[in-house]
Design goal:
With 192 residues, the chain is mainly α. Helices cover 73% and strands 6% of the residues. The chain has a domain at 37-163. Strands 1-2-3 form a 3-stranded antiparallel sheet, covered by helices on one side.
Length: 192
């Protein structure tokens, strides 16, 4: 029998519950893979990539989820929308031990951030096709797949480190807003 300290036992329990919650998130993930229609997200992502490329003077025609360049087309597929990265980042945040407000704030801040990183990923990958199909597949299949996994983990670690600071800022903003509103209400009109 292994004799564990109270601290070690607590850490093992926390790790077990984290893995249990993370595993439970696999159910909606696989349901989304099987049944979710993400064509709207494909089109939205393609529109954002088109706009991002236009900022740098790259001309492309947009047709739904297809970007047409001079000589080649790029389809923004379901997997190119970044939904899996966003989902997994949200699952990591939900599974971690934290207050609900910290989790909600983490999702509200970091999921849009991972989506923005994905827009950069798809834009750079699309642009890389100008340098040949081999370059495109190097960016698409190797660099950015590892890059997105690293980005998800980096953002999650950043959230873990800063979650209490973020929640404190949110509470301060709500408190400041409440105080400002109360100043403008007539006395005795109730609470906000």
């Amino acid at each position: 029998m292994i004799d564990l300290s109270e601290r070690q036992t607590r850490r093992l329990e926390n790790s077990f519950y984290f893995l249990l919650k993370l595993s439970a998130m696999a159910i909606p993930f696989h349901l989304a893979i099987a049944y979710a229609d993400l064509s709207w997200l494909q089109t939205f992502t393609a529109q954002n990539v088109h706009s991002a490329l236009a900022l740098f003077g790259v001309n492309a025609q947009l047709n739904g989820a297809v970007l047409r360049f001079d000589g080649f087309d790029v389809l923004v597929s379901r997997d190119s929308t970044g939904w899996k990265s966003a989902f997994f980042l949200a699952a990591l945040i939900v599974a971690a031990k934290a207050k609900s407000a910290e989790k909600l704030l983490g999702i509200a801040v970091f999921v849009p951030l991972i989506y923005a990183i994905n827009i950069v990923r798809v834009s750079v990958t699309s642009y890389s096709a100008f340098y040949g199909v081999e370059t495109f597949y190097l960016f698409h299949d190797i660099l950015w797949q590892a890059g997105m996994a690293a980005a998800v983990l980096a953002l999650w670690f950043a959230w873990l480190k800063k979650k209490s600071i973020l929640a404190g800022l949110a509470r301060t903003r709500v408190s400041t807003f409440k105080t400002a509103v109360l100043k403008f209400l007539p006395h005795g009109s109730g609470s906000v």
